[in-house]
Design brief:
The complex is a heterodimer. Chain A is an all-beta fold. Chain A has no helices and ten strands. In chain A, the strands form two sheets. In chain A, strands 1-3-8-7-6 form a five-stranded antiparallel beta sheet, with no helix packed on it. In chain A, strand 7 and strand 8 form a beta hairpin. Chain A is globular. By secondary structure, chain B is mostly beta strands. The chains are: A mainly beta, B mainly beta.
Chain lengths: ~110, ~120
C-alpha cells in the first residue's frame, strides 16, 4: 500500500512565526486531505486538496501530485494552532485514506 | 447539519467483557470508515464500507473484532472478548461517494480503556 511520510515530526514555534509542514507519499493519489488534531483529540478538516493550491485564512496548502508531495503553510501562528497535523492521501486502488505519522506543533505564547 | 455521531464517548471495561461502539454517519454519505488511534501505531484503518458493504477489513486485528453496517445510517464495531491492548481511541468517519473521491469527516471518537 501507499507509504506516507511527514516532516518535521515535531515543531516548536513562537507565536507569530510561520511554518511549512511537508507530506511525501509513495504512489499516485486521487485525493489528499490535511487534518488538525487539537489537544482535545478532535480531528478537524483543514483542506481537501488532491492537486493545486488552496488558502483558508492563515493556512494554505499545495499538492503536487506528479511529484508526490503536499505542503501545509501556517502563517502568523497562534497558540490555538497547537496540536498534531496529519496528511491523508487516498490511493487510486484501495480507496483507503492512509494517515501519515503526523507533525506535532507547539506554539508558545 | 449533524456530523458523524459516535457513542459512547468514553468506555471503561474489564478484560473479557464485550464492547460495542456505535456510529451514525453523515446523512447521504456512502462510505464509512473505522479507525483506531494509539500512541504506538498512530491512526490505522480497521475496516471500511461502501454502500453498507464491507470492502476492506484487512486492518481488523483478529477475530475478536467484528463490524457491521445493517443500514446506511448505523454501524457498530464490536470487540469480544476485550483485552487491555485494545485500549485506544476508536474513530468513525464517513465520506460521500464510493469512487475514491470525496472528503472524509470524523466523529469525535470513542475512548476505550480495558482494565
Amino acid at each position: 500500500g501507499i507509504q506516507v511520510e511527514q516532516s518535521p515530526p515535531d515543531l516548536i514555534l513562537q507565536e507569530g512565526a510561520n511554518s511549512t509542514l511537508r507530506c511525501n507519499f509513495s504512489d499516485s493519489v486521487n485525493n489528499l486531505q490535511w487534518f488538525h488534531q487539537n489537544p482535545w483529540g478532535q480531528l478537524i478538516n483543514l483542506f481537501y486538496i488532491p492537486s493545486g493550491t488552496k488558502q483558508n485564512g492563515r493556512l494554505s496548502a499545495t499538492t503536487v501530485a506528479t511529484e508526490r508531495y503536499s505542503l501545509l503553510y501556517i502563517s502568523s501562528s497562534q497558540t490555538t494552532d497547537s496540536g498534531v497535523y496529519f496528511c491523508a492521501p487516498r490511493d487510486n486502488y484501495g480507496q483507503n485514506f492512509v494517515f501519515g505519522p503526523g507533525t506535532r506543533l507547539s506554539v508558545l505564547p | 447539519d449533524a456530523g458523524v455521531i459516535q457513542s459512547p464517548r468514553h468506555e471503561v471495561t474489564e478484560m473479557g467483557q464485550e464492547v460495542t461502539l456505535r456510529c451514525k454517519p453523515i446523512s447521504g454519505h456512502n462510505s464509512l470508515f473505522w479507525y483506531r488511534q494509539t500512541m504506538m501505531r498512530g491512526l490505522e484503518l480497521l475496516i471500511y464500507f461502501n454502500n453498507n458493504v464491507p470492502i476492506d477489513d484487512s486492518g481488523m486485528p483478529e477475530d475478536r473484532f467484528s463490524a457491521k453496517m445493517p443500514n446506511a445510517s448505523f454501524s457498530t464495531l464490536k470487540i469480544q472478548p476485550s483485552e487491555p491492548r485494545d485500549s485506544a481511541v476508536y474513530f468513525c468517519a464517513s465520506s460521500p461517494g464510493t469512487s475514491g473521491f470525496g472528503e472524509l469527516f470524523f466523529g469525535e471518537g470513542s475512548r476505550l480503556t480495558v482494565l
